[in-house]
Fold:
Amino acid sequence: MKIGITCHATAGGSGIIATELGLALARRGHEIHFVTLEAPFRLSHYEPNVFAHSVDTINYPLFKLPPYSIALASKIAEVAQEYDIGVWHAHYAIPNAVAALLGRGMLPPEKRFCLITTLHGTDITLVGSHPSFYRSTQYAMESSCAVTAVSDWLSRETEREFDLKEPVRTIHNFLDVSRFHTRDTNRYTLASPEEKIIMHLSNFRPVKRVTDVVRVFKRILDDMPARLVMVGDGPERLSASGVARQLGVDDRITYLGNCSNIEDLLPCADLIIQPSEHESFGLVPLEAMASEVPVIATNSGGVTEVVVPGETGYLCEVGDIETMADYSRKILTDPELAASLGRAGRRVALKKFSLDHIVGLYEDLYEEVRARRQEFMTQKHNPEL
Ligand code: GMT
Structure:
């Protein structure tokens, strides 16, 4: 099958999932065309069956901001027509699904593709719910042949918030568990042997509550030698180091910045702390579980579908630093508990979120929308056909 994929090319989870999905589909023999602003975060190499098309924009004195979405729509139309693409998969509603619809409308009727929109979280909870984007997001979903979301929580939240006529289907995120290993070969580069390693990975946006990580870490440090390894970067990085200085723990924290080979870092951790305000899925907890690392996260959104409390880690209320610290100490002082949480994490990752299983669900969905193309085009979206 020929499939177009549009996603954000930055280090965010939606771009990572879209890229990994495209690569997995290509390895299964499908022809994949990415259309993005720049090469997707994890696609910098040649892969058979994969084509990466980038969007050109221009700066012109009349534009305060270059109209990227229009250039994206034109590129989608160009690629869809040239390669005769039957299914387009937009990851993240704004602007990707809206631009794909605009691009589809530019095509002759017989060349129009079926659009699938996958929601990742903030496209609904932050961007889509903003008055400037609400109607465009709703329009994109209503005009897609199918809408999926990465957790049941996000599916239900979207239906409630946007009053959709058709249900949003859940297809959970996935990972290639075989890429994640449990050997902590880099541990000695991060901490001394007696120190426990606590890790946090994110894009340091306010929703990630990185200062909570520092506050929990301070309480852990009161009881044992430890090092906090912060992976990623973003606007809250300064707040984290400010709080760390106030609490007198800044010399016990290492900020690594962005790293793409997190599978080499995660196994070094004794514990991962992800105290997000809300998280539609939580790829990092899943990646930690695949690396047999126990997780402390918040009882919010789709993370509750990933972390099994008491089995692969613990879930706490948002902002409940004391309980997070209590669970952290419990895990860090009981190696048997830590090992059993870790082993269970990998088992859950393999059973529920394996690449083969989830990519198969997307393939079934592509087949389904292709089989119903005529119905979609005539009854729902393009009555002129
Ligand atoms: O919030 C981020 O870290 C980036 C964002 C994105 O769109 O790239 O992540 C969202 O999508 C990820 C992949 O589906 C999910 O694992 C994250 O939970 C989700 N982030 C939020 O809901 C805050």
Q: What stands out?
A: The radius of gyration is 22 Å.
